[in-house]
Amino acid sequence: MAVDEPAVLALALRVALVHDSFTQWGGAERVAAVMHRMFPAAPIFTLAVDPRILPEDMRGADFRPSFLQGLPGMPDLAAYRRYLPILPLGAGSLRLRDFDLVISSSSSFAHGAGVPGDRHLAYIHNTMRFAWDYEDYIAGLEWPASVKALGRSGAGLLRAWDRRAGRRPVHLLANSTAVAQRIEARWGRRADVVPPPVDLEGIQSGPDQGRRHFCVVTRLIPYKRVDLAIAAANLGGEPLVVVGEGVDLPRLRALAGPTVSFAGALPEAEKRAVVAGAIAMIVPGIEDFGMAPVEANAAGTPVVAVAGGGVLDSQVDGVTAVLVREQTPASLLAGMRLARTRAWDRARIAGVASGFGVPAFRRRLLAAVRVTLDSRVAAFGTP
């Protein structure tokens, strides 16, 4: 019988987890869920948690939210976003002094929790997007000019906070090479790359014949650049199915031509059926890593993506994807037409995806935990 190393660690050490918030369910939350399954007895410190969004196996977890949980409107996502100016205070109020090992999962604030630096292993999904890439983040949002100007001022303060917070953990992990490069440029730190866990269980490769549509699967927010995929489909008259929901939906509907349809937020089985029956998945934005393209590959579906960001870690041009050099509708359309005509090896595509599953992540994270603990031993003589 194999030894469950996380369980052994949890018995030997006092382990805690930190995650930004559980006010929406996305890729970062899926990573935090895998960490919880590795260390189920570890308390989860977070800025706020909305029980309505949690998967069944997390509803009994030992959540320890910050003072933000009790503020008016919380923990609704819209209210959480309104409290942005004080979210760093919420992170700092999370005090984790009584633990031997703290693993944080952060795309914004969790790495700034009150953790002694020598015992803090931080998994970084991205440096704070709305601080460092503010103009891209607000592009397409119909905010008044005065609000955007105020946001620019606040973004500078958040960048300074993010930089200071990023220098505290003893060991940094980045979910992609692109994010590791941002960490080095913005925080002056080196990070080891550990791709996130993609749940590939139960994904079946779709048929080689009968694939008639392209698809996009993502949250519908401006920086995902779904508008480019729609423009490409309009330009070439290509059938495109958009799966997802978000604040950008009204604008995207107005842009869509007759060959574009919106499926909404589908149940997992239906979403997988759309992907497995697609000619290719379109990834028009620059992803930090991008779990959806790996899920597409597991179904034998190739990807058409802009050659940048996390897809450079997960995709192989000509094997699992068509990588285009320009982030334009014309370039995406050329990639779509190439994907339509190329003969793809579905089994090989799925084989590449298997390297990004949950078991691989568990092994890599545990190796990083050992490095963190070894660093403590070297520096302080005790784990």
What does this structure look like?
This protein is an alpha/beta fold and 383 residues long. The protein is built from 16 helices and 13 strands. The strands form two sheets. A seven-stranded parallel β-sheet has the order 3-2-1-4-5-6-7. A six-stranded parallel β-sheet has the order 10-9-8-11-12-13, with helices on both faces. Strand 1, helix 2 (27-38) and strand 2 (44-46) form a beta-alpha-beta unit. Helix 9 crosses helix 14 (329-341) and helix 12 (291-298) packs across helix 15. The longest helix has 23 residues, at 358-380. It is globular and about 60 Å long.
CATH level-four homologous superfamily name of the largest domain: Glycogen Phosphorylase B
CATH architecture of the largest domain: 3-Layer(aba) Sandwich
Order of helices and strands: HEHEEHHEEHHHEHEEHEHEHEHEHEHHH
Trace the largest sheet across and list its strands: 3-2-1-4-5-6-7
CATH C-level class of the largest domain is: Alpha Beta
Outline of the structure:
This protein is α/β, with parallel strands linked by helices and 383 residues long. The protein is 41% helix and 15% strand.
Core attributes:
383 residues, alpha/beta, Rossmann fold, 16 helices, globular, disordered C terminus
Chart the SSEs and their pairings:
Elements lengths: L4 H8 L2 E5 L7 H12 L5 E3 L16 E3 L11 H6 L4 H6 L8 E6 L13 E5 L4 H4 L1 H5 L6 H22 L4 E4 L2 H11 L4 E2 L19 E5 L8 H11 L3 E4 L5 H7 L4 E5 L3 H9 L1 E6 L7 H8 L4 E4 L4 H4 L6 E4 L4 H13 L4 H8 L4 H23 L3
Parallel strand pairs: 1-2, 1-4, 2-3, 4-5, 5-6, 6-7, 8-9, 8-11, 9-10, 11-12, 12-13
